[in-house]
Amino acid sequence: MFYDFIFDRYSRATIKLLADREIRSRIVGTYLGLGHYVVVPLLMLLIYSFVFSQIFTMSWPGATGRYSDFVLRVFIGLIIFQFAAELFNRAPSLVLENPAYIKKVVFPLETLVPIAITVALFAAIVSFGVFLLGHLIIVGLPPAAIFWLPIILLPLILLTAGLGWALASLGVFLRDLRQLIGVLVSLLTFLSPIFYPLSAVPPAFRAVIALNPLTQIIEMTRSAIFDHQSPSFLPLLLLYAGTAAVAQLGYWGFIRTKKAFADVV
To answer: pLDDT, tens digit, for every residue of 11-39?
Structure first.
C-alpha cells in the first residue's frame, strides 16, 4: 500500500535528502536564486491576467470587478495548476533521467515521484507566500476559512502522486510520452477553471469541466479564500476517495513494472 511506503522511515529520509539537494541546486549558483520561484509565476500571472481581463475583458461573477481582485483569483488557481503541471511534465522522464539508480545501486525508485512532488511543493509554497502578501495589501487579512486549505489541497498531492507514478512507469517504455503529456497539460490549462469560475462555463459543457479533479480543488480553494466558505463534506469526501484510489493504483502499477526497468533503460 502506498501509505506504508510514505510512513517508512528510510523512504522519508531519502525523499528529504534528495529533495533538499535538488532545491538547493536550483537556488545556489543562479542569478535569481530563490527569486526564480517568485519572478516566473508573477510574469505568467501578469501576462495571463492582462490577456483575459483586458483583451478578452472577462469579469468574475460576484467579485468587485477590480483588476487586482481578478489577479488574485487567477493567481491562486495558477499556483495549484502549476504544481500539478510540473509533476505531470516531469514524471515521464523521472526514471530515465536516473539510470544509475536502476543498474548500479539498490535504490527505492518509487521515491523519485515524492521527491519531485516535494520540489514542486516548495515552489508552490513560495508562490503562495507572494499571494498572501498581495492579499494582505489589496484586501486585508485572509478569512479564517483559509485554514481549510491543507485539507482541501491534500487530495491534490494524492492525485499528482498517483498519476506521477503511473506516468513515470509508462515513460520508461513509451519514450515519446513526455511530448504527449506536454500537449495534454497545455490543453488542461484551459480545461481547468484558472482564468474563469466554473459557474461561468455554459451548462452544456460544465459537466465536462467538472470531471477534471483540479476543478473541484481550485473551486474549493477560491471559495475558502474569497467567499469565506468551508468545503462541503460530501464533495470533499468523494475527492479524497477518488484521489486515494488514483494514488494506490499508480503506486501498485509502478511497483509491478519497476522490475523490468533495467531491461529497457
So the answer is: 888 888 889 988 888 777 666 666 677 77
Q: Distance (Å, rounded) from C-alpha 192 to C-alpha 48?
A: 14
Rounded (10°) angle between helices 36-50 and 112-138: 60
Ramachandran angles phi, psi of 32, nearest 5°: -85, -25
Of residues 113, 95, 117, the one with CA closest to residue 258: 95
How far is it, in rounded angstroms, from Cα 138 to Cα 157? 29
Q: What is the largest CA-CA distance in the chain?
A: 59
Between CA 177 and CA 171 the distance in angstroms is: 6
Closest by CA position to 73, among listed 232, 224, 229, 236: 224
The percentage of the chain sitting over the pLDDT mark of 90, rounded to a whole number, equals 46
Torsion of CA 61, 67, 73, 74, to 10 degrees: 110
- The three-point CA angle 154-78-179 to 5° equals 90
Q: Which residues neighbour 108 within 8 Å (Cβ) at sequence distance 6 or greater?
A: 10, 11, 14
Helix (H, G, I), strand (E, B), or coil: what is residue 60? coil
